[in-house]
Inverse folding.
């Protein structure tokens, strides 16, 4: 009896599994093979307006990575343990695993640049510009764990980021070379069919790609491609070209999701005042005790 019922259960399980596979592989009712076509603005361009956010762990490390006890670690008796400065954070300071957003293998650093990247990672607490609330740069602003808003009209495209009050005005007509290097660079956009293409340069060398120490020089140029692929999804790609740091151009890609909460809006996270004690506290007449 047990054998008989076992055989029946196995057969039913196999049949159910086959049915599920067939259901997964079959097109959904009403689904067509045609590519998604975004709603249009008044001038007929794809509408990118909205508040969007990445759900990736790329801000920790844009390359694939395993979980680890902290961004800053030190040797322990049985493996790395959190550095003393972050020990009290416990699980809050741990690094979750991530699949990575870099395409085509590891970031193609030049040997001397790779050595600097590793040094940055070892000295993360001292060097990461996010810790000091510096402007995030591009493309890091896109996949930090904060929403950002795209404001699009016939005459302008503007990005407003929640983190540090960062903003970008995307010129639709090239104004010429950037007058100065800047944290967020200078960006010029154009439409290629369904895709909004942004070419940016004029960056300083003070921003990172993530908390893992991945960096660039002031020679970096970024080409972003943004395509609305579903009602509440943007496909985001960015190609990084920096001959001073990398052996060739390389690309990241990830989806961005629309925030759908009722009355959703960009709120204030102007964190400059939150880090004044970190940056300038040692010059108080009476410094705070640790």
């Amino acid at each position: 009896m047990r054998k008989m019922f076992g055989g029946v259960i196995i057969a039913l399980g196999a049949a159910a599994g086959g049915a599920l596979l067939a259901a997964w592989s079959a097109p959904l009712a009403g689904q067509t093979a045609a590519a998604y076509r975004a709603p249009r603005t008044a001038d007929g361009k794809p509408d990118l307006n909205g508040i969007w956010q990445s759900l990736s762990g790329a801000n920790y490390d844009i390359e694939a990575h395993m979980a680890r006890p902290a961004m800053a670690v030190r040797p322990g008796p049985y493996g790395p343990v959190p550095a003393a400065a972050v020990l009290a954070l416990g699980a809050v300071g741990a690094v979750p695993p991530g699949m990575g957003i870099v395409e085509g293998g590891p970031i193609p650093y030049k040997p001397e640049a790779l050595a600097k990247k590793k040094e940055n990672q070892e000295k993360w607490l001292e060097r990461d510009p996010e810790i000091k609330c510096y402007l995030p740069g591009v493309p890091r602003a896109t996949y930090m764990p904060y929403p950002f808003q795209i404001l699009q009209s016939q005459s302008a495209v503007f990005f407003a980021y929640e983190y540090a009050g960062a903003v970008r005005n995307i010129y639709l007509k090239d104004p010429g070379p950037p007058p100065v290097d800047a944290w967020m660079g200078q960006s010029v956009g154009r439409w290629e069919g369904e895709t909004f293409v942004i070419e940016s340069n004029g960056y300083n060398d003070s921003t990172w790609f993530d908390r893992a120490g991945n960096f660039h020089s002031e020679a970096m140029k970024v080409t972003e491609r943004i395509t609305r692929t579903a009602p509440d999804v943007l496909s985001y790609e960015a190609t990084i070209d920096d001959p001073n740091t990398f052996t060739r151009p390389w690309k990241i890609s990830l989806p961005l999701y629309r925030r759908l909460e009722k009355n959703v809006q960009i709120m204030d996270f102007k964190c400059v005042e939150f880090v004044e004690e970190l940056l300038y506290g040692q010059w108080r007449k009476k410094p705070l005790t640790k």
